[in-house]
Design a protein that fits this description.
This protein is an alpha+beta fold and 567 residues long. Helix content is 57%, strand content 11%. It contains 17 helices and eleven strands. The protein has helices at 9-15, 20-27, 44-76, 89-100, 119-132, 137-140, 146-152, 155-166, 280-317, 329-368, 373-412, 422-430, 440-452, 455-464, 473-495, 499-528, 533-556; strands at 79-81, 84-86, 171-174, 190-194, 199-210, 216-222, 233-239, 245-250, 261-274, 319-320, 323-324. Strands 3, 4, 5, 6, 7, 8 and 9 form a seven-stranded mixed beta sheet that branches. A two-stranded antiparallel ribbon has the order 1-2. Strands 10-11 form a two-stranded antiparallel ribbon. α2 packs parallel to α10 (329-368) and α3 runs parallel beside α5 (119-132). It is globular and about 70 Å long.
Length: 567
């Protein structure tokens, strides 16, 4: 099989973004670890060389082990034995290979045996693993829960748990319950402090828990007796070695079948408080979910990549009426648009990741010393951009993932409906991306305030003022025109001061912003690398039509018409 890093030039392109120097130098504290650890980089070039070498290993494992195992894992799936999960044989092989390669704890500090990489190469590895098997990334990728322990747990907890993650133990985040899905304020799993032995005990049921039998879990539970809202919830660390939790069942899912989605029963399970009481939902889950949403954006891009490659290969190989079907305009357009949406999603993914990287690193530095005023201002700037771009990357990336998987099956025609081709599995795997870790509708709820407060427009204006290749200026002019329509639409909607009307039009406004942002990111990519020119042109033409469609709908739609959509 191919190496999923070296066979995809887009990855190295994004890894070499100009902002990476700043990110790496911040992450490495000007390479202060070089004297302490023999594997720590001496300078920026050394760090980037380490990133590439590790990504090549991840790409090789993804291509040679994870991808070939994907079909058997999809058929076998995990199962429950004596109240615990047993992974499919292929999943065990995948995990063993990645652990032996040292691909756990990628972004954790070296003092916990991590690699101290920035988030960009970690997300890039998730992108490749998702291309190989979207279900498996839900097991390997949950190592990012360790970031929550690193950020909010005490020093003793960090020293006890983080090296275990770096050594290969898996994680889970136990949030949802039968009556608490998107509305986590309704969580009722009970946490009781046992005065006799000074420990917390958890009792209740969790449902739809990804990798629910992981070695270490972050559990959202109600710690305040008599409370009914989010202020009564705290975050706990559960260690599977302590027992008290059994897997009642593994859900029989449409897709990502290798990933065990569990219903868990907690019976007096011992746990440790993580951080402070009452901040479980208000602070810690928000941080946890933002990381998870970035991970699903990466998963969406990886699935889109596999959909594109399967569609292209089939279209070039399949002959009808004496020629390959890729030669028919209808099919050629479909494949080209899969590629354009893939490239746009990936550009948005890595732009978002860079924003998260910078503000998270400044937050970490602030634990060590007082930030200078300009550093604090920069942290605030990138935190706001990360907050705005994360729901955009997850929401639009997952929707494009679904569209690309759909079109991949369509390119295959009747064959795509059969299990003989990978596109059937890709189609099933794609569907969950726009649902879990916050549906697309919830991403819109998170994003709309950045429409109304001007975060997106401000960033778009910054993109507008950047320099682009002269040959791309006609595309930039289209983006300027699209921005004017977006501004007019925002003004019309917000001028009503009608909250219900704003909510009704929110998805259209968010999508308009997304199309413009991704258009600018693609012409920026094309300026640095001509390989992106076709995708930039195709995507901006598509985005232009979408923006015009939304603008026309908003222009003709008045607030009183919302009532007609009510049941």
């Amino acid at each position: 099989m191919a190496n999923f890093f070296t066979d995809n030039t887009a990855l190295k392109h994004h890894l070499s973004h100009p902002l990476m120097r700043k990110i790496v130098e911040l992450k490495e504290r000007n390479f202060a670890d070089a004297d302490k650890y023999d594997y720590a980089p001496q300078n920026f070039e050394d760090a980037m060389d380490s990133y590439e070498k590790v990504l090549e290993i991840a790409g090789e494992i993804s291509g040679d082990i994870v991808a070939p195992n994907a079909e058997s894992v999809d058929h076998e799936g995990p199962h429950v034995v004596d109240g615990h999960v047993v992974y499919a044989q292929g999943t065990q092989e995948n995990l063993k290979a990645l652990v032996q390669a040292g691909l756990m704890g990628i972004s954790l500090p070296r003092r916990y045996n991590g690699l101290n990489f920035s988030l960009v190469p970690y997300i890039m590895a998730a992108d490749m693993v998702s291309r190989a098997d979207a279900g498996f990334v839900n097991i390997w990728g949950l190592q990012d829960c360790a970031e929550t322990i690193y950020e909010f747990a005490d020093d003793d907890q960090r020293m006890r748990y983080l090296p275990r993650v770096c050594a290969g133990e898996t994680m889970a985040m136990d949030l949802t319950e039968p009556d608490a899905g998107s509305d986590l304020q309704a969580v009722m799993l009970k946490a009781t402090f046992n005065e006799a032995d000074g420990t917390w005990r958890l009792n209740g049921v969790k449902r739809f828990i990804t990798n629910g039998d992981g070695h270490i879990a972050l559990v959202l539970a109600r710690s305040e007796e008599g409370s009914k809202d989010g202020r009564g919830l705290s975050m706990f660390i559960y260690d599977r070695n302590d027992g008290g939790v059994t897997v009642r069942r593994i859900e029989n899912k449409m897709g990502i079948k290798g990933s065990p989605t569990c219903e868990l029963v907690f019976k007096n399970a011992k746990a440790e408080l993580c951080g402070s009481r009452r901040l479980g939902l208000i602070k810690y889950v928000m941080a946890l979910m933002n990381g998870a949403r970035l991970g699903i954006a990466a998963q969406s891009v990886g699935v889109s990549e596999s959909a594109y490659r399967e569609a292209l290969a089939y279209a070039m190989d399949r002959k009808q009426f004496g020629k390959a079907i890729i030669e028919f305009p209808a099919v050629a357009e479909m494949v080209s648009m899969i590629k354009a949406k893939l490239d746009a999603s990936r550009s948005l993914l890595y732009e978002t990741t860079r924003f998260v990287d910078i503000y998270k690193t400044y937050e970490d530095i602030a634990r060590e010393r007082t930030l200078a005023p300009e550093e604090r201002a920069e942290m605030k700037k990138y935190s706001r951009l990360a907050d705005a771009f994360t729901p955009l990357a997850k929401g639009m990336g997952s929707e494009f993932c679904n569209q690309n998987a759909y079109d991949c099956v369509q390119v295959h025609g009747g064959s795509g409906f059969m299990k003989d081709y990978a596109c059937e599995r890709i189609y099933r795997d794609a569907r969950i991306t726009s649902i879990y870790e916050g549906t697309t509708q919830l991403q819109v709820v998170a994003a709309i305030r950045h429409v109304t407060t001007g975060t997106y427009l401000g960033r778009i204006k910054e993109y507008e003022n950047e320099s682009y290749a002269e040959s791309l200026l006609p595309l930039k002019n289209k983006l300027v025109e699209m921005t004017a329509k977006f501004e007019q639409a925002v003004e019309k909607v917000t001028a009503t001061k009608d909250t219900e009307y704003v909510d009704f039009q929110a998805r259209r406004l968010v999508e308009m912003a997304g199309h413009i942002v991704m258009g600018y990111l693609l012409i920026s990519d094309a300026t640095r690398n001509s390989e992106f020119e076709a995708s930039a042109a195709n995507y901006i033409r598509f985005g232009e039509a979408e923006v015009a469609r939304h603008a026309e709908f908003i222009g003709k739609f008045e607030p009183e018409m919302v009532a007609s959509y009510k049941a």
